[in-house]
Amino acid sequence: MSDNRPIGVFDSGLGGLTVVKELKKLLPNESIVYFGDTGRVPYGTRSDETILRYAREDEAFLLEQNVKLIVAACGTVSSVAYMTSEELPVPFIEVVNPAAESAVEATKTGRIGVIGTPATINSRAHARAVLKRLTDAVIVANACPLFVPLVEEGWIDADDEVTYNTAKRYLAPIIEGRVDTLILGCTHYPALEKVIANIMGDGVTLINMGTSVAQKVKATLESTNSFADKVTVDKYYVSDRAASFSAIAKNLLGHNIEECVEQVKL
Ligand code: DGL
After folding, report:
1. In the prediction, which pLDDT does 156 show?
2. Which residue out of 139, 184, 186, 248 is catalytically annotated?
3. Which of 78, 114, 161, 247 is least surrounded, with the fewest CB atoms within 10 Å of its CB?
């Protein structure tokens, strides 16, 4: 049996595309319906109640597109609104536990850093997920609220001075914490991977959850026997101007999606 319905992926904006990139690599036959809530980004500086409401609205939109599975490609939603999964008629994949698993696999010293949005860091979701798997781990966490606007603005070049200096300041306590592994706890952050890697140095493994999330999606489709057998067209919906989204998306995905992007009202 095959299931040619698309996989639904959502985020507050562009960040979830770093997960889409890995999904397309691992599951080239699958079609994607993406929703980027660019009209309301960022989520990570808002209250848990607001994030929960936004997550429910995003998921309802994807269900209207007849998706067979939903990926919350957003560290913030996965940290504070994961309970919405209980209300869904389709499987739900979040991004916190896959990141924690990869970090526990990668660390040698047990000293693990986590960076994310303020809502994500305040929730301590990654710390809990790591400590469940490695009880004596030491977690060093810091919120980096300016990273999401920098990515949405497209300031992602490794030699961008403003981005470099901002990252240097946010990462100082993580460096001081002598971690050997750093979880990029927000899906926007892999877009800044080069800058972060330059500052953290070679001795620190960066965890981009996209790869392990894609593995989780594959395992879920396998267990529900619902792989697609042919590719249809991917579709990208946004809640604000499509043009700026398309321009930066090209950078993140490595190909042009302009013709598949459409602005919608939730
Ligand atoms: N990509 C979202 C995350 O993973 C960004 C959240 C935000 O909009 O602040 O947390």
Report:
1. 92
2. 186
3. 161
